[in-house]
Amino acid sequence: MKKLVIAILATAVLAGCKTSPTGRTQIALYSDQQMSEMGTASFAEMKKNQPINKNPQTNAYVNCIAEQVVAVLPKEYASQKWEVVVFEDDSANAFALPGGYIGVHTGLLKVATNQDQVATVLGHEVGHVIAEHSNERVSQSSMLQTGMQIGGAALEMANVGYRNEIMQGLGLGAQYGVVLPFSRSHESEADEIGLDLMAQAGFDPKESVTLWQNMSKAGGGATPEFLSTHPAPASRIKDLQAQMSQALGEQKTARAQGKNPQCKL
């Protein structure tokens, strides 16, 4: 049974092995069309169930920033139509989905206090999309579910005592040993990609550090990093500062090309 589990997982890995924009090996078992369909369905559900902001000035501001960031995406993403919606939600959050969808919560605009800070978040979120993180997460979930099902069958067939307790332990191990650290790697990668994108669009990359300082102040007591799906703000700031010299160079090049965003709220 152990050999069967290994064979199934190895086959899945070989079939869906890809490389992310930063050179990281990743597993993506679903097609672009399948992921776009999932993104379309999810966004439609959100628009149906969540209140949408109708303020023309707010929407123009967010769309202005989103347009600048989308314009510097790889061609296959920049050429598609992106739908941007501002949701009435007090949480300081935003998201992007496969298929060309961006959602921004009004609460984000209270923490991200200028165009450069909002661009940091939007660059990060579309970074998730172009790095196919959603595909990885769905693929990972499918593989974990298959492994758990096979493991449960093996314990049942062997009539192993305390198998329920063992399966609960396996589930806990999968959560803390695989799912959460994997999410942190996605977040760090999206930070790296997002900083490049916003700088290439002409936004000020130094404001990315200010954004996470604002986030840290707004967050108050946070979950310890090792039990979180997101890196701690201090870790993010340190990583962003290490990348800052390159980002400033990209911004300088963008400004020389006439990219000088002027999005105002």
From TrEMBL:
Origin superkingdom: Bacteria
PROSITE patterns, per database record: PROKAR_LIPOPROTEIN (PS51257)
GO terms of biological process kind: proteolysis involved in protein catabolic process
GO CC term (a single one): membrane
Domain Peptidase M48: start-end pairs: 56-242
GO molecular function, one term: metal ion binding
UniProt keyword terms in alphabetical order: Hydrolase, Metal-binding, Metalloprotease, Protease, Zinc
Region annotation Disordered: where it falls in the sequence: 245-265
Presence of the UniProt keyword Hydrolase in the record: yes
UniProt remark on cofactor binding: Binds 1 zinc ion per subunit.
Cofactor: Zn(2+)
Family statement: Belongs to the peptidase M48 family.
Protein name as it appears in the record: Peptidase M48 domain-containing protein
